[in-house]
Write a structure and sequence with these properties.
heterodimer, A: about 400 residues, alpha+beta, four-stranded antiparallel β-sheet, three-stranded mixed β-sheet, 9 strands, B: about 250 residues, alpha/beta, Rossmann fold, nine-stranded mixed β-sheet, two-stranded antiparallel ribbon, about 30% strand
Chain lengths: ~400, ~250
């Protein structure tokens, strides 16, 4: 399939760029240029073949997209959360699977090792994860415990200088290629703890999940633990309970809020260009009211989400953000992006279902994005509980 | 080895071109600015490669422009310059700009001065030659390849129908074009590092301004395409003969 030239330009209807620093804009430009050079030309083919483009791991490490908010002494970027959000936006503008790879590595693997790990663990793992020498994954969801992780069955038992890990995790991004997994398991005192499991430990396998219609260019798999001996020094010492994994998810969901809008911006850009070029009934379809309604609503929703994300980033930088605010932004972005991609696909008519345009790939990817790291319904209940004070989960 | 790379600010290639003040000024509102690609992709990146090959190399950047040039200077520093000098001047006259660069170059005693072959906005292609003349240095233009061999420069130029290889002693002024190097994307480490690299601002030296723009004009709008059915070559020939008058 011939790769089309990626001439993406982002909509900025409310001059949101004026809220960014020159450095933020340079970071966005760098990641956008990387996506145009290395992702757009190849991603459709990898998605069609359901293959993970492994070369991006090193590339993303070199560019500095892994753990950008982790301090520089551990190989991170030492950047702020607006910079991180813009990076996720640009990566997902290319493909949600590419953004997922970076989100998992930064927010779900490097963040817990940095936040909950000790100095030895930080020094051992973070520089290799930041550079892309190692790929990491995060194990929380289980076959029978998705929205309800507190009921997890995966467990560790004390065995002297090590623990014995048993159980299974499912829907794990990066699993088939990861060298390192941050796994959440229940200990004998019924507390949830994080352990770092390395590829090669006896009894640890990572079968690939096949047959996905979404995130086809991202590798998904299971983590299976059959009496895996994990040294005690691999236990994350500084957190116990569900707040450990949930703290990671707050960071990752923050990245999704920005990322999903990246996918939406790509679809809007393509639909807008197409509407000016596609002639029906003797004039461009962009001149018809029904198409203008779609485009006007798209750019309105993108603008609202850009402002919401920017404000969320400021709160994140100031350390004032609540997980509930992140839930709202993640849910909003996924809803808006899903609708925009669907409308864009319709505007492209038959062309919208082919790989000639990225729209249907984005649309299918977003079905995962709206589901993982807290489903759409669960995030709604989080907001509901926050505003009423009443728990509707149980 | 001390290298000076001249970088200029130009509108992004997707910018809408319009003029103000009775067609004497470029309308800058809403324009996205970039480093002139010939300065960035070829001159600067080749200079960075020379520094990578010999880490003792000192790599300076010079820009003649207002404070609004600083974002593109920071980007150049993020790519790999050691420090930058901005001559605080909005003068658009080539001789004046070349005089400012020559003054900086003289002070810094550089072994190599790289420019792009031209800027993509005004296409003057004159700064390199003027700087060389003002400094009384040799000048090689439109270089596609640059190497150092035994302290001498070996420069390949594109000429009509082939290539020419030149040798020159340093110091030397070279204007660079496609082929010298490959475009690079600044990474986060470079962007963070650029925060603390020196960006000195100096006032312009006294120099003559020899030219001024009288007016700009946009190219005439393209005429529409006329489609001739494939089964009517006679009509095509008639149109080419009578309307286009090309046959």
């Amino acid at each position: 399939m011939a790769a089309k030239t990626d001439n993406f330009q982002s909509p900025d209807y409310f001059n949101v760029d004026e809220l960014l620093t020159e450095e933020h804009k340079l970071i966005r430009e760098s990641v956008r240029n990387y996506v145009k050079k290395e992702i757009s030309p190849i991603i459709e083919e990898y998605a069609q073949k359901a293959e993970f483009p492994q070369q991006i791991v090193k590339q993303l490490g070199d560019l500095g997209c892994f753990g950008p908010t982790v301090p520089e002494q551990y190989g991170g970027g030492g950047l702020d959360y607006i910079a991180y959000g813009l990076m996720m936006q640009e990566l997902e503008r290319g493909d949600s699977g590419v953004r997922s790879t970076a989100s998992v590595q930064g927010s779900l693997v490097m963040f817990p090792i940095y936040q909950y790990g000790n100095e030895e663990q930080r020094n051992k793992y973070l520089p290799k994860l930041a550079s892309g020498e190692w790929l990491g994954c995060f194990g929380l969801t289980e076959p029978n415990h998705g929205s309800d992780p507190s009921s997890m069955l995966t467990n560790i038992k004390d065995a002297g200088d090590h623990v014995i890990l048993n159980g299974a995790k499912m829907w794990i991004s990066n699993a088939p290629f990861a060298q390192v997994a941050v796994v959440w398991a229940r200990n004998e005192n019924d507390e949830i703890q994080g352990v770092i499991v390395e590829r090669g430990m006896e009894g640890f396998t990572t079968p690939t999940t096949h047959g996905k219609w979404s995130l086809r260019a991202s590798a998904t798999g299971e983590l299976v633990f059959d009496n895996v001996k994990v040294p005690k020094e691999n236990i994350l010492p500084n957190v116990k309970g569900l707040k450990g994994p949930l703290g990671c998810l707050t960071k990752a969901r923050y990245g999704i809020a920005w990322g999903a809008i990246g996918a939406a911006m790509d679809c809007y850009h393509i639909a807008l260009e197409y509407s000016k070029e596609r002639i029906q009934f003797g004039r461009p379809i962009g001149g018809f009211q029904l198409q203008q309604k779609k485009l006007a609503e798209m750019v309105t929703e993108i603008t609202k989400a850009q402002l919401l994300n920017w404000r969320l980033g400021v709160l994140m930088n100031e350390g004032k953000v609540t997980p509930q605010q992140v839930s709202m932004a993640k849910r909003n972005a996924c809803e808006v992006a899903t609708n925009i991609c669907r409308d864009a696909r319709q505007m492209l008519g038959g062309m919208g279902i082919t790989g000639e345009y990225p729209v249907m790939r984005h649309m299918m990817n977003l079905e995962s994005v709206i589901t993982y790291e807290g489903t759409h319904d669960i995030h709604l209940l989080i907001t509901g509980m926050d505003v009423t004070g009443l728990n509707a989960f149980k | 080895m001390k290298i000076l790379v001249c970088i200029s600010k130009t509108p992004d290639t997707t910018a809408k071109i319009a003029f103000s003040d009775n067609n004497t000024k470029f309308a800058e509102a809403g324009v996205q600015w970039i480093i002139n690609p010939y300065d960035e992709w070829y001159a600067l990146v080749r200079a960075i490669e020379l520094k990578e090959a010999d880490p003792s190399t000192v790599l300076h950047l010079v820009n003649v422009g207002g404070a609004d040039s600083e974002p593109i200077i920071r980007k150049a520093l993020a790519l790999g310059g050691d420090e930058a000098i901005r001559v605080n001047s909005d003068n658009a006259d080539s001789f004046n700009i070349a005089s400012q660069i020559a003054a900086i170059a003289k002070d810094g005693a550089y072994d190599l001065i790289f420019t792009g072959k031209e800027t993509i906005d005004y296409n003057g292609s004159s700064i390199g030659g003027m700087v060389a003349e003002l400094l009384d240095l040799p000048y090689i233009s439109h270089a596609v390849k640059f190497d150092l061999e035994g302290g001498k420069a070996v420069v390949v130029r594109e000429i009509e129908g082939g290539e020419e290889t030149d040798k020159a002693a340093l110091p030397l002024v070279v204007s660079c074009q496609k082929g010298m190097a490959e475009q690079r994307i600044p990474n986060m480490k470079g962007i963070m590092g650029a925060r603390t690299k020196p960006l000195k601002v100096t006032e312009p030296v006294a120099a003559e301004t020899l030219t001024a723009v009288a007016s700009f004009d946009l190219p005439p709008a393209k005429a529409g395409v006329k489609l001739v059915p494939a089964d009517n070559p006679e009509e095509l020939v008639r149109l080419l003969h009578e309307e286009a008058r090309v046959i």
